[in-house]
């Protein structure tokens, strides 16, 4: 079929009903349900955009010759890496970085998994072929993935096999000639109302026999029998997009995924009972690099939005003369330029990996993703501080349209450089970006985007080689010591 349009994206969701639950009711058609419909329409907009800007967003499939999404491209040069980056920025600019799981995120992961499939097949060659075929299936049909990779947070002091219920965390119940059966739960699947779900392997498993049933990587349709999505409450309250400009457009919904003895055919299994391979798969195949590349592009779009928002607030209420205001706006600008520089460094130093694909350099991406987990809450705090009580003291679309209130609103909601009917939309946007429930979810999401920041910092400490810098200091210490003793010798009578 090749690259899809927005209408085709929505139509396939309607044609494949899944076991999807929201606020105690089963959702029969997410494309019309108030909790999901507007977010899915925003996603559909991205599929339309790839055809509107086909030269920048599509390429010719190597197998079918059809136009397919550029986010599925296996880069064969540094220029290819930059080409994919530009495509991802086109999408990110549409949602200002507020949609964290647009299709390109997992497309990049699956693309690198397919490119590095030989790693998956070192012990079981069939797994490599399974991944290549799955990637091609996704690419040729332009399917959208959600994913899940962590276990439910019951007793975090012990691993999945030591929980009170051994089937709390999703595990393999049995094997058959045709595949495996999974029972238990996983979290946190963002965007559950799409085509397929990739159940990534955990990277924290211990290499023991009791942990082996929890070790697998599979990809299955979201309408697979026995697969249930239990969603959090939507942040699209069905209100006016004027009152909730971000939540009404960009809420993706998150879900806990429950496996009620879900059968997975062997051709959809990519890792199984191989803890060492599961723990290494992200890094070895380049999947983590592909995901981080997309995330940094998304974060640049998001920071550009906040810099523009902060600057408009400052201009509207005339506070640009205060030095602490200048400092806060400059802080966001510094974050933005740092992210852009790290992205440019990663792309400029792109290199060919062991499987013939080009990857952006990992250290700049690793630095960028770790910094943003700490920076984003601060960016939101700056909007709160600049807006002060103005972010709370605002009115709704209904108020603005009520003839009895118009004169009061025009008089008492004006700003230094903005009429009331220009100031109010600005502060409604600031509220939804920095203070609403949607904003709070965004902060929590960015804070834990790649997992526990402390654990990730530990990985940086362990994995990134600091030896060259240590040697520089050791050489200087050696020089200090030699000079000191030489001076002591000279001073002796």
TrEMBL record:
Domain of life: Bacteria
Alphabetical UniProt keywords: FAD, Flavoprotein, Monooxygenase, Oxidoreductase
Any one GO biological process: phenylacetate catabolic process
Binding site for FAD: 147-149, 153-156, 190, 452-455
Binding-site residues, substrate: 101-105, 147, 202-203
Pfam families, alphabetized: HpaB (PF03241), HpaB_N (PF11794)
InterPro entries xrefs: Acyl-CoA_Oxase/DH_mid-dom_sf, AcylCo_DH-like_C, AcylCoA_DH/oxidase_NM_dom_sf, HpaB/PvcC/4-BUDH, HpaB/PvcC/4-BUDH_C, HpaB/PvcC/4-BUDH_N, HpaB_Deino-type
Gene Ontology MF terms: flavin adenine dinucleotide binding; oxidoreductase activity, acting on paired donors, with incorporation or reduction of molecular oxygen, reduced flavin or flavoprotein as one donor, and incorporation of one atom of oxygen; oxidoreductase activity, acting on the CH-CH group of donors
Statement: the UniProt record of this protein carries the keyword Oxidoreductase: yes
Domain HpaB/PvcC/4-BUDH C-terminal: 278-477
Protein name in UniProt: 4-hydroxyphenylacetate 3-monooxygenase
Native species: Thermoflexus hugenholtzii JAD2
């Amino acid at each position: 079929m090749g690259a899809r349009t927005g209408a085709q994206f929505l139509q396939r969701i309607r044609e494949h009903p899944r076991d999807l639950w929201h606020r105690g009711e089963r959702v029969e058609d997410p494309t019309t349900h108030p909790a999901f419909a507007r977010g899915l329409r925003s996603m559909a907009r991205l599929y339309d955009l790839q055809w509107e800007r086909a030269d920048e967003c599509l390429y010719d499939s190597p197998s079918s010759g059809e136009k397919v999404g550029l986010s599925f491209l296996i880069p064969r040069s540094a220029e290819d890496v930059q080409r994919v980056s530009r495509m991802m920025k086109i999408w990110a600019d549409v949602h200002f970085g507020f949609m964290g799981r647009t299709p390109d995120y997992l497309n990049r992961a699956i693309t690198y998994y397919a490119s590095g499939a030989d790693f998956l097949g070192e012990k079981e060659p069939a797994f490599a072929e399974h991944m290549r075929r799955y990637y091609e299936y996704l690419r040729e049909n332009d399917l959208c993935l959600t994913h899940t990779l962590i276990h439910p947070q019951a007793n975090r002091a012990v691993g999945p096999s030591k929980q009170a219920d051994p089937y709390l965390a999703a595990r393999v119940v049995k094997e058959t000639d045709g595949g495996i059966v999974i029972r238990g739960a996983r979290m946190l699947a963002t965007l559950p109302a799409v085509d397929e779900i990739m159940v990534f392997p955990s990277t924290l498993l211990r290499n023991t026999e009791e942990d082996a049933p929890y070790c697998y990587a599979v990809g299955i349709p979201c309408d697979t029998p026995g697969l249930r999505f239990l969603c959090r409450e939507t942040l699209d309250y069905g209100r006016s997009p004027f009152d909730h400009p971000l939540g009404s457009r960009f809420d993706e919904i998150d879900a806990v995924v429950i496996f009620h003895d879900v059968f997975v055919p062997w051709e959809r299994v990519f890792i199984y009972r191989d803890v060492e391979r599961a723990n290494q798969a992200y890094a070895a195949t380049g999947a983590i690099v592909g995901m981080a590349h997309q995330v940094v592009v998304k974060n640049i779009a998001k920071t550009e939005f906040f810099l523009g928002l902060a600057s408009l607030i400052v201009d509207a209420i005339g506070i640009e003369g205060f030095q602490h205001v200048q400092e806060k706006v400059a802080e966001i600008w510094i974050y933005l330029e740092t992210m852009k520089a790290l992205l440019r460094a990663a792309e400029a130093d792109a290199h060919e990996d062991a499987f013939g694909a080009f990857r952006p350099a990992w250290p700049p991406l690793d630095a960028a993703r770790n910094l943003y987990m700490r920076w984003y809450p601060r960016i939101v705090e700056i909007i709160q501080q600049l807006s002060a009580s103005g972010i709370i003291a605002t009115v709704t679309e209904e108020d603005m349209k009520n003839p009895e209130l118009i004169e009061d609103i025009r008089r008492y909601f004006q700003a230094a450089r903005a009429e009331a009917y220009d100031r109010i939309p600005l502060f409604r946007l600031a509220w939804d970006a920095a203070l609403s429930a949607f904003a709070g979810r965004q902060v929590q999401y960015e804070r834990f985007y790649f997992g526990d920041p402390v654990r990730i910092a530990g990985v940086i400490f362990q994995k990134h080689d600091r030896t060259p810098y240590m040697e520089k200091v050791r050489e200087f210490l050696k020089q200090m010591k030699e000079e000191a003793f030489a001076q002591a010798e000279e001073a002796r009578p």
